[in-house]
């Protein structure tokens, strides 16, 4: 589980499927097992408080984005509380109470996104994808000092999708951002056929 602060009142949490399985949550449970998700949310808020000092009291807007290839991204935004001045001790027994006033929105995205620290890794994975005849598609972004390759599953044969993910994972790491974040805070380098373009420009 990775937690990062986006602003004073907003955090982002990235859970891989291994994180979920460790907690007894299957991929499909994200949509149909509220009690399990409630326990998971309590754990996440405890960790956010411990690591970042993020106090999740008051109204919360919770955006959940499920990405079947990578895991689950949760963005928690804290609203204004009427009791903002109250000091709240975080005893274990308090965590059993329904202390969160949440508005939850859930989305699902099949887009495969991987981040690469060096452009050489983007070149290497593109060569491998082309050589293995897996895909020539994808969008390439620059974001937070890294290169992000986003591939739509609709542009990859279903029988080849796991092979594509396995190759991407060899050179990069799954990243917990959405297209909206990339468009707003990143830079589009190659809007289409990124794998083919990288291969054509750097194949020597």
Automatic annotation (TrEMBL):
<dbReference type="GO" id="GO:0030674">
    <property type="term" value="F:protein-macromolecule adaptor activity"/>
</dbReference>
<comment type="subunit">
    <text>Homodimer.</text>
</comment>
<dbReference type="InterPro" id="IPR008681">
    <property type="entry name" value="Neg-reg_MecA"/>
</dbReference>
<protein>
    <recommendedName>
        <fullName>Adapter protein MecA</fullName>
    </recommendedName>
</protein>
<comment type="similarity">
    <text>Belongs to the MecA family.</text>
</comment>
<dbReference type="Pfam" id="PF05389">
    <property type="entry name" value="MecA"/>
</dbReference>
<dbReference type="InterPro" id="IPR038471">
    <property type="entry name" value="MecA_C_sf"/>
</dbReference>
<comment type="function">
    <text>Enables the recognition and targeting of unfolded and aggregated proteins to the ClpC protease or to other proteins involved in proteolysis.</text>
</comment>
């Amino acid at each position: 589980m990775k937690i990062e602060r986006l602003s004073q009142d907003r955090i982002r949490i990235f859970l891989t499927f291994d994180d979920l399985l460790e907690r007894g949550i299957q991929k499909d449970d994200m949509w149909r097992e509220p009690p399990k998700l409630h326990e998971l949310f309590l754990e996440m808020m405890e960790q956010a408080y411990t690591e970042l000092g993020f106090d999740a009291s008051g109204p919360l807007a919770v955006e959940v984005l499920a990405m079947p290839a990578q895991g689950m991204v949760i963005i928690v935004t804290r609203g204004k509380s009427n009791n903002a001045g109250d000091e709240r001790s975080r005893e274990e027994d308090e965590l059993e109470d329904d202390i969160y006033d949440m508005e939850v929105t859930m989305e699902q995205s099949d887009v495969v996104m991987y981040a690469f620290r060096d452009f050489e890794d983007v070149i290497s994975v593109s060569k491998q994808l082309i050589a293995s005849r897996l895909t020539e598609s994808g969008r390439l972004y620059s974001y937070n000092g890294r290169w992000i390759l986003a591939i739509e599953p609709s542009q990859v044969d279903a029988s080849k999708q796991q092979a594509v993910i396995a190759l991407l994972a060899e050179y990069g790491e799954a990243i917990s951002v959405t297209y909206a974040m990339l468009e707003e805070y990143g830079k589009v380098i190659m809007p289409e056929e990124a794998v083919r373009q990288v291969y054509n420009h750097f194949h020597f």
